[in-house]
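hi!! sorry for the late reply, been swamped w classes. u asked for the two structures so here they r. pasted raw, havent cleaned anything up. first the sequence of the first protein and right below it the tokens
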Amino acid sequence: MVGTMIKISIKNLSVNYSDGTESLKNVSMDIIENNVNVLFGPSGSGKSTLLRTLNRLNDLADVKNMDGQVIFNNENILDTEINVNELRRKIGIVFSRPITLPLTIYENISYGLEMAGIKRRSVLDEKVEQALKKATLWDEVFDRLHDPANAISGGQQQRLCIARVLALEPDVLLLDEPTSALDPISTSKIEILLQELKNSITILLVPHNIQQAARTTDRAIFLLQGEVVEMAEGKEIFLNPKNAKTQEYIEGRFG
């Protein structure tokens, strides 16, 4: 792993939905700073619920109860007193399909910055450029900034969504199957991007498939039916899993 500093500590987290579904069951794990932390497992194992909990998007879902703690910057982000808007700037999220705003490429990034209080055009110009460069998109769109965002390719739109989050200078980037709708070339670009970004940001990735998990991971956590089965350094868990269920899933025997 790149480092061993804990960025987020999840302690005994359980999430139950109003329909009776128990999505997470007493989950405890540490998200390691400046690593690509990969959260993998079959559909329905609770991966997306965990990401949505870290970003407080579950506030908008039909959750019956939530127990446990999520410690970030020495605070439990599940506390009702937490400023959720500020939290979402510090822990950003990107979903499986690119969700661009019905605005220009430039405005897709500047909009969030303006909502955060930045109004000066020269500062906006600089931050938009920096974010696009971080997302390895600047060289492809620098002369198209005022074109509609939906005029660029799907892979470019996904990197634009990543740039939009990066513009707010988050500490953590959550990615929920960010390449599931993309072609292999676009997928490769985003995987390379993650390796560059982890030098300055902590990443929690739900991968598109087990091969992507193995390619990208520094630290891996295997979830099954809402529970943590195994977590270890990425290479170790994919080459020498300790739990039989982990091995079976990696070998494609279920899921």
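now the second protein. again sequence first, tokens right under
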Amino acid sequence: MERRELLKMIAVLTGTAFVGGEVFLSGCKNASNIGGAVFTAEDIAFMDEVGETILPKTKSPGAKDAEVGKFMTVMINDCYDDADQKIFHEGLRKLDDASEKMNNTSFMKATPQQRHDLLVSLDKEAKEQRAAFDKEQAEKSKGVPAYKKEKMSPHYFTLLKQLTLLGFFTSKPGETEALRHKPIPGKYDGAFPYKKGDRAWAE
């Protein structure tokens, strides 16, 4: 699967454009030295568990198998601007606080079902926030050129979900075990047999 196609798919699943996508497609590494907070081993473990709740291991590998936590640190440091980095770092704390509020325990101590229910509620919150913003902008910005329209800051859970999906489907376990891996370059076959329900190819 090409990078652009994957980013489009993630945008559809999360209801908003992929944050940092332009930088990712150009090879990451912003021109400016971003800096920012340093991720700890605890942060990476936390992100792995969030990712695993989004994409749990079944017959196929899960997000932890793909080490999405480490992947996220690279993407945040190299492809996000200062504002989105701040949203992400603060979002880790907000997610843990939301777990305490909803389940009376931290995310790391919550049961798998409690984690699942929490993330479902955060996903709903993020999508409702996006829909409300889009509706408001549609009414306020009639006739305004797209480049002048106000842009919404992404919800922190949207960032976590996007990076989990991207990290998993560009990893070796994701490409070779969850998808069907086809090494490139390869021959063109316009009549390759397809059965309904076949998994997409990873290229």
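hope this helps!! also noticed smth abt the second:
Residues 3-202 form one domain.
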